[in-house]
Inverse folding.
């Protein structure tokens, strides 16, 4: 069992700041997170940008698919105003901006490839190249609900770390992880809340990073179970528990 669970800020400090923005990432680091979980999409002109949804409707004052806009066009959109007027000048970050910040701070980074709905051609190669451009292969784990994509990442570079996102209560998930070939399992936390499941996964030396844990009651349970990484919208709450 891990001696200390990593405090991983879900889309940055998304409980108090506009998700997947540089301010959310920086505020998460300020409150003492160990790492950040975030999402990568591709613009029309193939610029990797940070956004959870395939569309910009929920998080900006624009609408439509990210893949329909160039990066320059997306810079005209406001990615903070829906969270509060004080964030009205917030822009969509590029993957380069985030990787430069990770390089500066030395934090852990979980990059989720958003390629289950829009199958961005070449996304895996592009993201892996950028990870190496910034010399961050030791800091980064890639993840996706698209497990074909994670297999492709290992084919491109066997040394790149990958995690399989899932929500179902898999039977003996460690056997599936062995079959697919990965470094970690990234389940919804309720899928691994039972000790025998955790012990089975750990017996095969796979990491467990759970999402998205905002209730302190469950944070405590997962810490006691020795979960490797806890992904939360409230890294401040988790930090307090990890210090207690």
């Amino acid at each position: 069992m891990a001696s200390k669970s990593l405090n991983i800020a879900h889309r940055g400090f998304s409980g108090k700041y506009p998700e997947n923005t540089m301010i959310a990432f920086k505020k998460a680091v300020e409150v003492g997170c160990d790492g950040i979980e975030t999402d990568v999409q591709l613009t029309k002109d193939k610029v990797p940008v940070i956004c959870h949804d395939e569309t910009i409707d929920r998080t900006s004052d624009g609408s439509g698919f990210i893949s329909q806009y160039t990066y320059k066009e997306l810079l005209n959109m406001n990615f903070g105003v829906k969270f509060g007027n004080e964030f009205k000048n917030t822009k969509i970050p590029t993957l380069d901006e985030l990787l430069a910040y990770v390089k500066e701070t030395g934090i852990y980074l979980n990059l989720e490839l958003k390629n289950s709905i829009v199958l961005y051609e070449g996304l895996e190669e592009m993201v892996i190249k950028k990870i190496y451009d910034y010399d961050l292969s030791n800091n980064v784990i890639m993840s996706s609900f698209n497990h074909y994509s994670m297999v492709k990442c290992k084919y491109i570079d066997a040394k790149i770390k990958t995690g399989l996102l899932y929500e179902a209560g898999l039977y003996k998930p460690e056997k599936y992880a062995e079959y697919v070939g990965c470094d970690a399992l990234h389940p919804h936390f309720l899928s691994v809340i039972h000790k025998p499941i955790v012990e089975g996964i750990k017996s095969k030396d796979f990491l467990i990073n759970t999402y998205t844990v905002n209730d302190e009651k469950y944070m405590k349970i997962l810490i006691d179970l020795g979960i490797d990484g806890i992904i939360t919208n409230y890294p401040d709450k988790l930090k307090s528990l990890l210090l207690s």
Remarks:
- The CA atoms of residues 43 and 71 lie 6 Å apart.
- The chain has a mean pLDDT of 97.
- The chain has one domain: 6-55+93-243.
